[in-house]
Design the sequence.
């Protein structure tokens, strides 16, 4: 039987999830800004 | 020697709660109507810039939704429908919600201005202020007409989409704004009729709480009657073709019939069933999706 996570484990899991979400948003923003610049250059 | 229990440190907020703060379900309608406004415009926009415009509209809507929940956290705690939201459930700090809302709002307006146009950015900023300040802070707790005037906040996305594509304000985006503006009262009042007890408990002066069921049902019918010619106006003014015209006639006709059933045949009914009210509320969501989808289909199929 699996034991429920301790508060420390839960904290680490939440922080890990937040870091991943933030990294994804920053990477997506960088890619978006790159393509916006290319699109603006065409016009 | 006795040892005092270690103080419990609250858990950090999960990213899912930040996402929930943006009201993703409302956002889907905002994205859809914004996209329709952008696609229905008579000019084509670069796909990357079009995507950016819709993203900015969505992020702006998310920011204003976060600010709405930051301000209404105490009210949300009193209503069954909203008590499990991140703030009233205690899963998030109020300041974090406020800062998140401000950050999303500012970022969406800045990117819209820099990448698309400052006119679209100005209208986006206006829509955020309209929802977060004019509706949430000022109107909602003060007047039963809160939904009527506040409906303007939800009416901005197709207008912004259109302006992002064309760069100017014309008759058609104003008509799209007006359609959502007149659609909002019957949509929300149908909901307010069957969750009335929640609003009354929280002290929000929703129309059924203040004016009663009979008056609310009558007003639903008035807006449904006004919506019929308004939804047909793009066809009459020849800015949309027959496909849109026929669809608008059918969709608005059904909307009117369902409103008629709620208004005339039920009078001041307050029974627990509320099936016609729930049906009108459910149909009103489909109505808006279908009407705007037909507008885009008309533009691409009929031209």
Sequence:
């Amino acid at each position: 039987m699996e034991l429920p996570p301790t508060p420390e484990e839960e904290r680490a899991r939440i922080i890990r999830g937040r870091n991943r979400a933030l990294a994804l948003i920053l990477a997506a923003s960088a890619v978006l800004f790159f393509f916006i610049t290319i699109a603006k250059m065409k016009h | 020697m006795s040892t005092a229990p270690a103080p419990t440190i609250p858990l950090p907020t999960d990213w899912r709660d930040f996402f929930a703060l943006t009201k993703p379900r409302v956002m889907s309608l905002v994205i859809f109507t914004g996209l329709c406004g952008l696609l229905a415009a008579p000019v084509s926009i670069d796909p990357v810039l079009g995507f950016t415009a819709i993203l900015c509209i969505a992020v702006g809507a998310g920011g204003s939704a976060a600010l709405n929940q930051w301000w209404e956290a105490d009210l949300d705690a009193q209503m069954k429908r909203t008590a499990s939201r991140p703030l009233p459930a205690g899963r998030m700090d109020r300041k974090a919600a406020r800062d998140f809302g401000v950050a999303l709002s500012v970022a969406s307006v800045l990117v819209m201005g820099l990448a698309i146009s400052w006119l679209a950015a100005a209208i986006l900023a206006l829509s955020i202020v309209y929802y977060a300040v004019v509706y949430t802070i000022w109107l909602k707790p003060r007047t039963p007409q809160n939904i009527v005037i506040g409906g303007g906040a939800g009416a901005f996305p197709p207008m912004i989409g259109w302006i992002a594509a064309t760069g100017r304000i014309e008759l058609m985006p104003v008509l799209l704004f007006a359609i959502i503006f007149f659609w909002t009262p019957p949509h929300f009042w149908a909901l307010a009729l069957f969750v009335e007890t929640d609003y009354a408990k929280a002290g929000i002066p929703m129309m059924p709480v203040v004016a009663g069921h009979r008056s609310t049902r009558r007003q639903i019918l008035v807006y449904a009657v006004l919506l019929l010619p308004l939804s047909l106006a793009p066809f009459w003014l020849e800015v949309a073709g027959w496909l849109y015209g026929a669809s608008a006639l059918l969709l608005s006709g059904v909307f009117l019939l369902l409103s008629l059933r709620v208004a005339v045949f039920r009078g001041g009914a307050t029974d627990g069933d509320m099936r016609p009210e729930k049906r009108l509320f459910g149909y009103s969501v489909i109505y808006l999706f279908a009407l705007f989808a037909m507008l885009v289909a008309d533009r691409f199929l009929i031209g």
User: Anything to note?
Assistant: Chain B has a mean pLDDT of 90. Chain B is about 75% helix and 0% strand.
